[in-house]
Specification:
Blueprint (H helix, E strand, L loop, with lengths): L5 E6 L2 E6 L2 E6 L11 H23 L8 E8 L6 E9 L6 H12 L2 H5 L5 E6 L1
Parallel strand pairs: 5-6
Antiparallel strand pairs: 1-2, 2-3, 4-5
């Protein structure tokens, strides 16, 4: 079954997002006051969440835990709303992660469906810490 997502502007920077079985309200902004995420910030956050999810799936299959892993994302947007140019993902892995698993997690990070769905012109810099 294909998910259908609906977005409805509610006023006062609020957008209600719904799909069968769930709903959420997203506050957005474009006024530079940093009160809420911009839609571009949400896109970067979705990339981070998907990346961690893919890495966790690999960890579980190998009997490992990814608990405590974090990603810091640094998106760079082109001037004049021309889109996302570059995004840096700084991935902090759990302490004691060996080199073999670091490379497995890096490959999993690159297999994220959100990453694969973004414009290939976007530069990605994925770093493990």
């Amino acid at each position: 079954m294909q998910d259908i997502i609906h977005c409805a502007y509610q006023g006062n920077t609020q957008v209600e997002i719904t799909k069968e079985g769930c709903a959420d309200t997203l506050h957005t902004e474009h006024d530079g006051k940093n009160r809420y995420f911009t839609p571009g910030d949400v896109l970067a956050g979705a990339l981070g969440a998907c990346t961690l999810t893919m890495m966790e799936a690999v960890a579980v299959r190998r009997g490992k835990s990814l608990a405590g892993a974090k990603i810091t994302l640094k998106p760079v947007f082109a001037p004049n709303a021309a889109g996302l140019q570059k995004i840096t993902l700084l991935i902090t892995l759990p302490e004691g992660t060996d080199e073999t698993m670091r490379q497995v997690y890096l490959a999993a990070a690159r297999s994220c469906p959100v990453h694969k769905s973004l414009n290939p012109a976007i530069e990605f810099d994925i770093q493990l810490q």
